[in-house]
């Protein structure tokens, strides 16, 4: 076997192919004085930092392309559910009063309601119908309603394929932090004190143990979205006193997220709202003594703030989702829709295709991907589904996770400008004679649903299919890398160019073999045009078997 040493610069190449104008000029390794003089040494190519492996690495298309129906229509029977981890932090007064109580004090009655903000309640404790929490809202969206009538882009999904899991509920006794009033020096109005809460009850292990006395571990500190519950007992501006002896007109009910996206949430006034408040929504919509209405409003606030943490802005302040130059949902005034990222105005809970896609994109390409429960593969490691056969030319500008083999038919050009992820342990890519698979800045790797969460099994990808499978006998089409940004990436992946198959690196190609192994087998055709560059990063390697043909396959002719 011939091992090619490929560092940040491409080795010089020699042995040009026939000079037909429609064919690329291909080179083999320059072994020294015996080579002809036609090779042009490559210039130094950019080298990725050691250890860097971006499995998905950001948006490859519009946000809408990351929404569930994208997968339903093209790749998967259903997009794997992404589950985001949460920890609730409940701030009681110094004497343990005026907020949700720990289960040891009330047999878990308060915590059942508190967890219901995420998991919902099968029935209200005093009877009644089931009430949705954030998980119910995210899994059972309603048709959109707006004051302006029909939206520009209709909603087509009822399930975001995103869920939340409460990993722990922690309790603290501190009147200072229980009081989230805007009149305090802490400046909690608008979430201004969230950084101090995060430092005190997440980052600082000396002050975060809470009643249990057990500090958060590093995983809980760094890989969880933290939700703080406190109260806002009044403030200036009202004559009537609330039950805490403060002017009641300033008692605030609401929430705030640390950012878009964000890692923490403040939920203020919800215990008092449920127990005592005669109103349940902004605008003082009268609903006296209706705790179920209060619960629904608090569940809405929770879903709204989680939306911020997952990358969504308000619908009314210019931070909406952009879809092909159109705001989706359309920008409206506050309270003019039932969108989760609006303020309450109409019944139900809706999100647009673009918003759902934006959350999935954020869960794949930002720091919040580390908050996900690693449970994506429980439903996706069984028998592969029907092969993916491409019968019409098309461009993939978004992530395509494939659970089965990929076939590109004769006369078809499939252009990949994002990432193809394939599910192991064995996968095949077969391009029929006359077909082309073009990675135009695209990449090939293991099946992955976020930057840090890829399928657990090893992956062997055979370019050209299985030589023992008669269905793969026609495999002499073209696989080509062109342009910057091309990657083979995954420590678990090996890619083999099989006998009779052709791999071409165009002159513009910048291919990074990142952690993966690329091998050209005896009888395969490997063509590298002058100017192409290969880098090996993070342990990636490239091996050519003796008998590799350095040129294009005989069946390609003028197709290149």
Oligomerization: single chain
By secondary-structure content and strand pairing, the structural class works out as alpha/beta
Count of helices?
10
- How much is the radius of gyration in Å? 29 Å
In whole angstroms, the N-to-C terminal distance is: 29 Å
Strand order of the largest sheet: 1-31-28-25-22-17-14-11
Mean pLDDT across the residues is 76
What composes the largest sheet?
8 strands, mixed
Apparent shape: elongated
Helix content estimate: 10-25%
Strand content: 15-25%
Weakly predicted, low-confidence segments? 1-24, 27-58, 183-187, 235-250, 278-288, 379-383
Topology overview:
Blueprint: E1 2-3, E2 13-14, E3 28-29, H1 68-74, E4 82-92, H2 103-106, H3 109-119, H4 134-139, E5 162-173, H5 175-178, H6 194-203, H7 218-222, E6 225-230, E7 254-257, E8 264-268, H8 270-275, H9 291-309, E9 322-323, E10 326-327, H10 353-365, E11 388-390, E12 394-396, E13 400-402, E14 406-408, E15 413-416, E16 419-422, E17 426-431, E18 436-440, E19 443-446, E20 448-450, E21 453-454, E22 459-463, E23 478-482, E24 486-489, E25 493-497, E26 502-505, E27 510-514, E28 517-520, E29 525-528, E30 533-537, E31 541-544
Parallel strand pairs: 4-5, 4-6, 6-8, 11-14, 12-15, 13-16, 14-17, 15-18, 16-19, 17-22, 18-23, 19-24, 22-25, 23-26, 24-27, 25-28, 26-29, 27-30, 28-31
Antiparallel strand pairs: 1-31, 2-3, 7-8, 9-10, 20-21
């Amino acid at each position: 076997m011939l091992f090619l040493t490929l560092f940040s610069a491409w080795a010089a190449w020699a042995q040009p192919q026939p000079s037909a104008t429609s064919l690329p000029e291909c080179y083999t390794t320059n072994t020294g004085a015996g080579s002809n003089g036609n090779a042009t040494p490559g210039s130094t190519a950019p080298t990725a930092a050691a250890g860097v492996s971006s499995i998905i690495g950001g948006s490859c298309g519009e946000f809408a392309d990351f929404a569930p129906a994208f997968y339903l229509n093209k790749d998967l029977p259903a997009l794997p559910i992404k589950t985001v981890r949460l920890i609730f932090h409940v701030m009681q007064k110094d004497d343990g009063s005026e907020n949700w109580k720990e289960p040891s004090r009330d047999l878990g009655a308060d915590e059942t309601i508190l967890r219901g903000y995420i998991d919902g309640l099968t029935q209200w404790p005093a009877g009644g119908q089931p009430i949705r929490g954030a998980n119910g809202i995210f899994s059972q969206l309603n048709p959109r309603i707006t004051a302006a009538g029909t939206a520009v882009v209709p909603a087509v999904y009822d399930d975001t394929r995103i869920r939340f899991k409460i990993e722990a509920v922690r309790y603290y006794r501190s009147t200072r932090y229980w009081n989230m009033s805007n009149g305090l020096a802490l400046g909690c109005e608008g979430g201004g004190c969230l950084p101090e809460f995060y430092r005190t009850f997440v980052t600082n292990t000396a002050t975060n143990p809470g009643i249990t006395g057990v500090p958060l571990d590093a995983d809980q500190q760094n890989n969880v979205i933290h939700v703080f519950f406190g109260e806002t007992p009044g403030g200036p501006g009202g004559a009537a006193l609330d039950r805490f002896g403060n002017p009641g007109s300033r008692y605030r009910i609401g929430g705030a997220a640390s950012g878009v996206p964000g890692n923490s949430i403040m939920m203020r006034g919800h215990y008092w709202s449920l127990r005592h408040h005669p109103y349940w929504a902004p605008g003082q919509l009268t609903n006296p003594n209706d705790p179920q209405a209060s619960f629904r409003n608090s569940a809405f606030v929770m879903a709204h703030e989680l939306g911020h943490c997952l990358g969504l802005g308000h619908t009314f302040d210019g931070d909406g989702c952009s879809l092909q130059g159109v705001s989706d949902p359309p920008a409206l005034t506050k309270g003019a829709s039932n969108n989760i990222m609006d303020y309450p105005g109409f019944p139900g809970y809706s999100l647009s295709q673009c918003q759902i896609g934006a959350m999935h994109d954020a869960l794949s390409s930002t720091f919040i991907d580390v908050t996900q429960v690693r449970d994506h593969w429980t439903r996706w490691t069984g028998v592969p589904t029907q092969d993916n056969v491409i019968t019409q030319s098309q461009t993939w500008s978004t992530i395509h996770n494939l659970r089965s083999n990929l076939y590109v038919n004769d006369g078809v050009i499939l252009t990949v400008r994002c990432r193809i992820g394939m599910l192991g342990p064995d996968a095949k890519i077969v391009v029929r004679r006359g077909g082309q698979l073009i990675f135009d800045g695209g990449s090939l790797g293991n099946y992955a649903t976020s930057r840090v969460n890829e399928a657990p099994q090893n992956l062997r990808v055979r370019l050209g299919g299985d030589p023992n499978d008669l269905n793969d006998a026609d495999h002499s089409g073209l696989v080509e890398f062109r342009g910057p940004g091309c990657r083979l990436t995954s420590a678990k992946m090996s890619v083999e160019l099989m006998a009779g198959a052709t791999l071409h690196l165009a002159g513009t190609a910048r291919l990074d073999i990142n952690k993966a192994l690329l091998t050209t087998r005896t009888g395969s055709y490997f063509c590298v045009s002058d100017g192409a560059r290969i880098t090996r990063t993070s342990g990636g390697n490239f091996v050519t078997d003796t008998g590799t043909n350095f040129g294009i396959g005989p069946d390609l002719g003028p197709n290149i």
